[in-house]
């Protein structure tokens, strides 16, 4: 929702399973901070610290509702200039880059000898040489970024790997990925083969993966 509409219209609720961290302070949800709250104004999933505000919401008959800090400041008309501090490289919201990406989808990811884990992977149009990895599609901070330029691509899975996997290697760093199917794997490889050479795809829109 735009700022002007906050509190006037019911928001779309982000589902709990679409995030792995508070969408405001980026605190990961874990066994201790498992409680997830929804801001009744913007619909974002936030931790208890960031949901400890109340404001009168027009769409709910002006009743007092739990809201996040940002919406609270907007609704009561006070701006928080400190919030506008420059975002770090990892603090690009996933929804922001996924909506304007060369390619994005879930991939399985393995680093060194850790177990495979599912990650939401995105190559944004404005940075088509960088792979962003998020815990979930609506997370507000990336877990990691891989600048693809100069990586070698190995797309032949070993017997121990998942079937549709490929590796990116550069000196000592090795990143292993696996797609759910061969078609998705080939779409990613098409983009990555260009990115490692410093090139970007011409026909970017054809590679959108839902």
Automatic annotation (TrEMBL):
Q: Which UniProt keywords apply?
A: Cytoplasm, Cytoskeleton, Guanine-nucleotide releasing factor, Metal-binding, Phosphoprotein, Repeat, Zinc, Zinc-finger
What InterPro entries does the record point to?
Answer: FGD1-4_PH2, FYVE_RhoGEF_PH, PH-like_dom_sf, PH_domain, Znf_B-box, Znf_FYVE, Znf_FYVE-rel, Znf_RING/FYVE/PHD
B box-type domain residues: 17-67
Q: Give start and end of each FYVE-type domain.
A: 16-72
What broad class describes the main subcellular location of this protein? cytoplasm
What's a single GO CC term here? cytoskeleton
Q: Where is the PH domain?
A: 100-197
KW Zinc (keyword) present:
yes
GO molecular-function terms, A-Z: guanyl-nucleotide exchange factor activity; zinc ion binding
Q: Where in the cell is it found?
A: Cytoplasm, Cytoskeleton
The GO biological-process annotations, alphabetized, read as: cytoskeleton organization; filopodium assembly
Q: What's the name of the protein?
A: FGD4 protein
Q: From which source organism is this entry?
A: Dromas ardeola
Tell me the lineage of the source organism: Eukaryota, Metazoa, Chordata, Craniata, Vertebrata
């Amino acid at each position: 929702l735009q700022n002007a509409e906050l509190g006037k219209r019911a928001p779309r609720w982000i589902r709990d399973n679409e995030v792995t961290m508070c969408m405001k302070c980026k605190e990961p949800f874990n066994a201790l901070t498992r409680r997830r709250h929804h801001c009744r104004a913007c619909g974002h999933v936030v931790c208890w610290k960031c949901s400890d505000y109340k404001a009168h919401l027009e769409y709910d008959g002006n009743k007092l509702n739990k809201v996040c800090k940002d919406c609270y400041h907007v609704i009561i008309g006070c701006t928080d200039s400190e919030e506008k501090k420059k975002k770090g490289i990892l603090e690009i919201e996933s929804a922001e880059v996924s909506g304007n990406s060369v390619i994005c989808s879930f991939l399985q990811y393995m680093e060194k000898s850790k177990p495979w884990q599912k990650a939401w992977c995105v190559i944004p149009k404005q940075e088509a040489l960088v792979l962003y990895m998020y815990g979930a599609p609506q997370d507000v901070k990336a877990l990691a970024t891989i600048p693809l330029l100069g990586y070698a691509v190995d797309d032949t899975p070993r017997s121990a790997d998942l079937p549709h996997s490929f590796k990116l290697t550069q000196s000592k760093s090795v990143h292993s990925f696996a797609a759910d199917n061969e078609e998705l794997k080939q779409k990613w490889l098409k983009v990555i083969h260009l990115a490692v050479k410093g090139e970007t795809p011409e026909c970017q829109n054809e590679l959108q993966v839902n």
